[in-house]
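Continuing the series of single-chain predictions for the mutant panel. This is the parent chain; the variants come on the following pages.
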Amino acid sequence: MALQLITLSLFQGQGAVAFSVHAASGNVLQSAMHMSAAAANGEADSSTFTVGVIGDLHMDPRKMEDYAIGREHWLSIFGAAKAEHSPENLALVSLGDLGESKSVRPAETKELFAGTTGCHELASEFLGSFDGVPYELVGGNHDLEGIDEFTTDEANLEMFLRVHNKPAPNFIRQIADKTLLVGMTSTVFRSAIYTSHEVTIDQEQINWFEKVLQDHSSADGWKVFVFTHAPPNGSGLRVLQENHVVNGCCWLNHSNEKQCRKFIELVREHRCIKAWFSGHFHLGQDYQDSITFPTIDPADGPYPNRGSCVFVQTSVMRAGTSRDGRQQSRMIKGNQNGFDICTVDHAKDGAVRVDATITYSDCNHEVGIYAHEDEERQGDAFFKVYAPSPGDENLIRYEDDMFFEQIVTQETKAWWYMACGRVLGMLNGSLIEYDKSTLAPLGLVVGADELIGKKISVIDSGLGDECEIMYEEGMEGAECGSFDGREQALLLIDDANDTVVVVQPNEDGSYWRKIVRNKMVRMQEVRRERAAKEFAKQGKGEEEEGIKVISSWGPYTSTSGTAKRTGVSGLTSVAQV
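Parent structure:
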């Protein structure tokens, strides 16, 4: 993508943003320094600030070399910043996931290092060693993983706060005149309803965050920079389908539909939010979709409605934790005129590159520039995930029933709206659900193992002119009793075997499957399977060959109103398809 200059402006009293796109001239790029009048005159400028942003550390005490190198890079940067402005306008922010999620003493113990007291003491010592620069911290999905040391999330969180000298999971720091750094921490691991690696901000922090925004409005000149481990739904950042999408842990509060959407709603409502930094994906900063602007070129799609916020993905410092080979951090340099988002490249001797420049026109207007094109390497396409946009060529439009006549392959791309407003689409041979507001991926509905080679249809399944009286045991009564709108059935059609599979929605109306559950529950299940195998081996000597141990789960296996069978087709009973 070529360099673009995008002007963002709010029509007061309306919910729309107008923008224009221009070529980025040399003069415009030179404005990236944002030099204020005070700075030009050599005077102290209380609006000037520098913030270092460090992504997932996943520290391992056996592998400290990359952290030492990264710290030297930052010490040099912070030393220069102290000569430019007040040291009080200087801070370091860690985006969490501080420790390695495996044993760091495998010969002695299987205890995971992440979330332990030793992990947080090591991280605290490191983060506190940047020549007096204070650090702020938000917790990620691994920071309460000290499951062998602590029995509850509350006890683990208390240690986390104490070791890092934090009064609360959230933080607020005024870094410059009318400029705030605000962060929120994931506080759930053992008590997660679904995957323990969902980044969950509790309701108390959400309420606090909303109050901070209400008390620091853009109309009063406030600028707020937000930090969380994972990004919010609607950020538009690059994600991994093979990991975070299918496991339901891409976005903040991913599995809670109302809370998940709350963050982007706050961004849209409060234009004081100027940038939002996150980590979580372990992806580098060389892609332009590692930074997303509040709006986009009309040629690239419709207005995404991201308020005044620039969303920023942050990479990692240690080579062994990177998914794409990058070792990078972010830096924010700003003042009353705007701010630069920069990359500090730890694999290139700490080289600093300007990635984007945002200039304030006034409290509700900004100009944003991407300062470089994509720098992709071989294999990087693996990390690029297609996302639908309204009106694109892959949208299927239909009125009554939808028949997708093509057999689904790995390359099939198509998406559509269900009558209820849910959005489904096919990508990489799988069926994915997307958020109906932001079109961000939510999760896996049908895997490629079940979908490839079949056809998909959506048909009406509601009532005709008359209701039938049902007499099946457990289903007695008029079937129209609970009908309150248009119903549809999503079908997988296998012509080769003359079978049709109905993909039923979840109880809440969503379709994506919450397959990955709480880690504590899964560990218990593994222990039960291990015990079952040991039991089955009794009387058979030490030979394990021929012993099969499988698990079955509830809660639903049929449409029957009476529980008569619990067998799972093809697993614990004869396959029906």
